[in-house]
Structures are given as C-alpha cells and as structure tokens.
Amino acid sequence: MSFENAVLFPDGAAINDDGHLVLGGCDAIELASEFGTPLYVFDEPTLRGICRSFVREFADRYPNSRVLYASKAFISPALARLVHEEGLGLDVVSGGELAVAAAVDFPPEDIYFHGNNKSAGELEYALDYGIGRIVVDNFHELRLLNDIGGRRRLVQKILLRVSPGVDPHTHVHTTTGTLDSKFGFSIESGDAAEAVRRAVGAPSLDLIGIHSHLGSPIFELEPFAIGIDTVLTLAADMVKEGLKLEEFSPGGGFAIGYTRDRLPPEVGAYAEVITSTLKARCADLGIAGPKLLIEPGRAVAGRPGVALYTVGAIKDIPGVRKYVSLDGGMGDNIRPALYDARYEAVAAGKMTDGPAETVTLAGKYCESGDVLVRDIRLPVLEPGDLIAIPASGAYAPAMASNYNSNPRPAIVMVGNGNARLIRRRETYEDLMLCDILEDGRPGQQGS
Ligand code: LLP
To answer: 64-82: per-residue pLDDT in tens?
Structure first.
C-alpha cells in the first residue's frame, strides 16, 4: 500500500498488513528492534537508482559529462564503494573525506578536492594519494600548492573555483556563489581573472578548468543558467590569456523534497537547463565544449535515507503545545536548528491510523531549540512508538555531533528485504577514545 508522504521516502516505501512502514522490503519496526534507535536507514536500490539517473540524464544530453558525488552530504566506506560502483567520481572537502575514499581504494584520478582552507598537510596528503584535481579556492592556496608541487617536482592539475555573484534564493547559510562569500575568486571584483593569470604562470600548476557552486538546495532552474552564462563569459575572455577550458563545473545544489508542499524539479530538468545553457553559450562564445562535471550531494543521499526514532516522554501543555520527545534530535540532525529546515514525519507503526492531533517532535538534547518537526498532525502517540522522518540521508549523519555526550546513531543499508549494518552505533567507550588522564586513558588507568 502506498501513502501520502511516499514521494519523500525511498522508492518502494510501503505499508504492510500490520500497518507498519516498510523500507527496502524491511519492516521499520523490526529494523528498530534489531538495530535500536535512533537509526538511519539507507535504501540501496534507491541510492543506486539516483546515481544512475544522474549519470544517464546528463550523459544523454551531453556525453562528455561526469557525475561527482559530493561526499560532504554523507560519506562512509560503504557509500564510497557504492558510488564508485555506479561510475561516479568523488568531491571531497577535507583530508578526512579523502581518507574514507582511500579506505576503499577509490581511484585517485576520480577525486576532486574542494575547500576554502585546505591545509598544507591536507594538500600533501592529496598529492601523496595522487589525487586527480585540486579545486583551488583562493590566492593563498594557489601559492601554497605551487610551492608544494615545486618541492615535489610535479605539476598538479587544478580547477579554479570562481564566485559568479548569483543569488540562488536559498538559506543565507547555504548560499555560496554571491560576492559576499568566503568561497572562490569573485568574478565581479576581478579576482577570478587575476587568479587565472597567476595559475597560468605557475610552473607547478596545470590549470585545466573552472568551477563554481551557487548554494544549496536550489529549487529554481534559472540560477543555474545565469551562473553558467556568467562563468563561461569570464572563461571565454580568459582563454585568450592561456586558460585551457577542458573541464567546467557548475557544482551541485540540486534540491530534494523535504515536505510535500515543496517538491524539486526532476533530475532531467536540471540536466536540461545545465547542458542546453552550456552548449548554447559555448557556441555563442566560439569555445569548444568542455567536459561537464556536476556535483550532487543532497540529491543522491537525501531521499534514500530515513531516520527512525522512538517516542519517550510526552508533555502536553493544554492550549499551548504538546511536546513528543524522541531519542535523537539535534545531535543527529542539526538542520532544523541551524537552517529552520522543515521535515515531514510518520508514525511508522501506525501508518493506517489517521492524523489525530498536532504535536511537536522534540529531541533529547538540552536545548530548547532542539526540535525536529514543529506542529505536525500525527496519530495519537505513546511512549515506545516509532517515528520515521524521510529525506534524512544528506547532511544529517554527516553533520552529527556528540553533544551532551550522546553516541551517534547506527546506520543500516536495506534492500530487497535485507538489512546490513554499515556503521555501528557509537558506544560510551568510543566517546572517550581520544581522552587522556595523567594516569592513562579513561577506563584503562595504570595500563
Ligand atoms: N559542490 C560544492 C563545491 C559544494 O560546496 C557543495 C555543497 C556541493 C557540491 C553539494 O551540494 P548539494 O548537491 O548537496 O546541495 N549543510 C547544508 C548544505 C551545505 C552544502 C555545502 N556545499 C544543509 O544541510 O543543507
């Protein structure tokens, strides 16, 4: 049986005869009892299907294209292996993300290293790994990488990240391509042109392309067209100054549905605007069409991931609000507190019960702002009930913290009725792994 919010859930999400939510052929109630809560459930067929649709929708329109998964949305060895199997490359933004990729021998030439403040150590690590491309963000990094490359007597292929000054109409904290941004060389200020000149003249750098990223999530198509137009106009000018535009990336930022009242364009619609703008502008400007790189993160990992929580305390303040507290919260999903992000939720064991009351789903963290979903209509809930929040795969586990010394959740991968743990739940011992007392490590005094 399908249900109202099914569009926000992984493919095949359904209701079984017991009225329970089914994910990847597994009863959510059974998943919770086997693995505990809070639990993040990723649906493997949906993940693979989305990877394939990105590859197909872009390659059908523009064969010389490559999809790079933006691993900041969520990465683990299992996920890195999966996206590699699906033919995607990887965008990493730290030595840590690179280490996860390295743990599964992700081909170095398929990895692009982003970030506005890569350390010398991170750059050295990337070069040790033989990384394909470094996306240089600023003049400091341009010098640093050229120096490191010089010392190593190598020439590193780079892209420059430019900031096109386009507002993608998303949350200010996730807007990156405007003038007032810490990211990239601004086109408007002249820095981008200057960066191209310096990179072309840098003996240990081989500038082969231009990158930009507007922000995230972008529900409109037009910002992509304007952004590409602006960046290609700059690139065409700079070709005269020695820029080889072999690769071009308009970044990521593709939206997903968090709530039913705001659904994103199809992948094909994003692909259409990006590839048609690219083709048309290259023709106008008289430049050869470069390899197109796109970097979806949220749109790959978001919808396949569902968060499961158990209801605990319920506090009814008559005429004011009914708080239903869950066993997770801002420690595993900071997005509502940080961006006012809105989510839907369902009672995973009461899928056939109609909505009966308006409640607020609060977390267990010692912060009043720790609310996952405000004012949502749900069946009558009792302690022990299971809540499922869809569209939780991207930027929730990835941004999880140990606030209040809560262990971070376990993650399972489901599909075809099977479930396998891809990350175990943290233990209290894990929380103290890095801590040191004068007489030894906690729990290991004297050893
Ligand atoms: N490429 C670059 C250079 C980026 O900076 C980002 C995201 C992406 C690709 C992937 O964007 P996506 O396709 O996932 O939208 N924590 C925020 C999102 C921050 C995005 C940062 N950069 C959130 O939870 O909404």
So the answer is: 999 999 999 999 999 999 9
Ligand 1 pocket member 395 (CB < 6 A) = yes
Spell out the residues 6+ positions from residue 227 whose beta carbon is closer than 8 angstroms to its own: 164, 166, 168, 177, 212, 214, 250
Q: Which of 216, 231, 334, 342, when mutated, tests ligand 1's pocket best, judged by the most ligand atoms within 8 Å of its CB?
A: 216
pLDDT tens-digit map of 8-28:
999 999 999 999 999 999 999
CB of residue 213 inside a 6 A radius of ligand 1: yes
Q: How far lies 404's CA from each of 337, 369, 396, in Å?
A: 16, 14, 17
> Which of 26, 282, 366, 434 is flagged as catalytic?
366
Q: 26 an active-site residue?
A: no
What is the pTM assigned to this prediction?
0.97
In which element (H, E) is residue 140 found? helix 139-151
Helix (H, G, I), strand (E, B) or coil at 67: strand
| CB-CB contact of 46 with 380 (8 Å) | no
